[in-house]
Every structure is written in structure tokens, then in C-alpha cells.
Amino acid sequence: MRMNEGVEWALHSCLNLSWLEPGEAMTAARLAAFYDLPAAYLNKQLQALARAGILTSTPGPRGGFRLARAPERITLLDVVTAIEGATPAFRCEGVLRNGPGGRDDVDYAKLCVVSQSMHRAELAWRKELAGQTLADVKATVERRYPETPARTRSWFTSPRA
Amino acid sequence: MRMNEGVEWALHSCLNLSWLEPGEAMTAARLAAFYDLPAAYLNKQLQALARAGILTSTPGPRGGFRLARAPERITLLDVVTAIEGATPAFRCEGVLRNGPGGRDDVDYAKLCVVSQSMHRAELAWRKELAGQTLADVKATVERRYPETPARTRSWFTSPRA
DNA sequence: GAATGGATACTCGGATACGAGCTGTCCGAGTAAAATGGG
DNA sequence: CCCATTTTACTCGGACAGCTCGTATCCGAGTATCCATTC
């Protein structure tokens, strides 16, 4: 079980966007340069965030991405599901269906006790992610590293290196 | 993010093993036939369970796999980590290291707030899995479907179809 | 009849191909800004 | 000087390869069983 690399990039990029002036957009290329990431691939992830309604994108000069809503209303789960998709990690393929006495007209994903237990664990995972907003993470970073917001903003507003 | 198919197989196979007579072994081929699974591949998963100390394997005629300890002492997390490995799904690659002001001698997996939040969610997931033992699942199945243990045992002890 | 040695068949175990999905890259459609020419 | 029009440059957006890892398979090492042979 392995999570997409893009999730980490997306989270950090959203965090960086939250430190910009409200309404200010930033291009995928510049967001990628901040961490020395492949620009086109990060662009792909940001597109997914835009499709999910987390970011808004504007093309053309002075265009780019910006947060679609306040960080208080963006949970970590929103970002993760935007990148990873909504399909659960443990997909019950219904082995019981192929076993003796298996019926085709039964939804074993719902009835199978094993599936339920695994599903319960994933629910706990999602609940924990949904309980943390981007604003919470942002606040923690600002408390521990007070210079980060100003430093980040100045990096993005400085002329291209 | 996608969990190995083998996890589901391993869980159901452990459950089936728990319904056999204590000390009775069952071959990978027969366990696979129960759900119509590829035998050699299931064997691979069972090997992983044996390496993790969840099952014991004995070669030769009358050999096979059996539970290494009581179902009360086998958690779902044990099975999952045996198959999936212990590496967490969200691996912090330390994008901060490549960012401005990044240091090579800092463990960002520990300091990065994003990484910590994601790690906390995975901890909740593991905790939920660790709280459920194979005996719990077994008891739930026996309560809901009382005929399952006898039926399963008879299937495994019946002559090969 | 009992014991012994060997042959046998069966099981796990790891080494070996195949394929899906993540990773990475490219170029085109569309847009806002800037430049240009005229009034 | 101001405005309309054209040009320009820049951005996202989706379509196209490369590669790692999960999926599937095969054959060999080792062992308990069974059988033939001998005492």
C-alpha cells in the first residue's frame, strides 16, 4: 500500500498558497520551483485539486492557481481524496462470492465481516484526516516556525531566480 | 493508494484455518480452491504470514499451514503488516529539504507538520486494526452465520472434489 | 510378524515473467496583457 | 492624449511515453509416508 507522491506535493503547495495575499494566483511552474519538483507533473496534481473544487485556476498571463475557499474549510481529507480518488484502499473483491454457497446477488462488500472491519479502520483514518484543516496545519507551522510565512511569501514575490 | 489483494485472501484464509481442528494443517492449494484463487500466489502470501510468525508451515505429505497462535493473539494489523510491510503509506520524501533553507542534516519526516498530520491519521488506522483480533471477527461471523464453522470445516475435510 | 532401507509423492520456498498504474513529459487551446496604429 | 485592434506571450489542460511494483506462474529442496525386502 503506497500513497501517491503527489499528495505530499499538493498539501505543501496548498500551504504555500495560503500564505499569499488573498486573491493572488501562483503558477504551477513557480510552485514546483519552490521545491524543485517536475513542473508539468505538479501541474497535473493541481488540476486534480481544481477539479475537486479546492483550487481555482485561471489561464493566461497573471494566471495560476489560488485557494478556492478559506483554509478553515479545506480538510486534509479533501486534498487526499482529490489526488487519490474516493475508492477505498481495501477493496473487497468478494472472495466469498467464489466460495461454496456464494451467491451472485449478494453484496459481500457490505455483509462480509472482514470487509466491515477493514472498512471501519479506513473510516478512522478518514475521520482523523477530516478533523484536520489546512488552517490547523498552517497555524501549527506558524507557531513553531514564525518566520516561515514572510519568508515563503517573499520567495514567491521575488523576481525569478 | 491501493491495498494488496492478498490481504483479503490472507484474512479469510486465517479465518478458515481458525475453524479447523487445533493442530490440523491445510495446504495452500486447498485453501486457494475454497475461494477459487490462484494457488501459487496465495502460497506466496501465506509464506509472508509464516515469516511474520502468524502461521507455521510444515512441508511434505500431511503438511501445510496452521495458525501459529490462538486467534485471540492475532490482530488484523498483524496480518496487514505481514502482507503489506511495515512502511507507512504516506512516505514523507522531505520536499522541504529541496526547498529554500532546506538542510540535509534534518529529518523532515519527523519535523514536517504535514508529515506529522498524515502520520497521525495512519496511526489511527493502525490502532483500529490492532484493536480487532482474529477471534473478534471469528466470533462475529459465528454469531451472524452460525452454520459457517461446521460447513467450512466439512468442506475442508471432505474428499477432494 | 516386525524391523529396516529405499522409493515415492507431496508440500513449501524462492526465483522467474507479465501487466497495471503511478511517474514524468510534451504540445495545443484559450486568455489576458501589451504593443501598435489611428483618430 | 485616448481608444480600438492586432499581436504577443503566458497559462492551464489533456494526451502521450517510461518505469516501478503488484500479479501470476513455474520448478527445485526437503520431508513424512508407504512399500518392498529381509530377519
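Residues 2, 27-29, 43-44, 46-47, 50, 57-65 of chain B lie near DNA strand C (CB under 10 Å from a C1').
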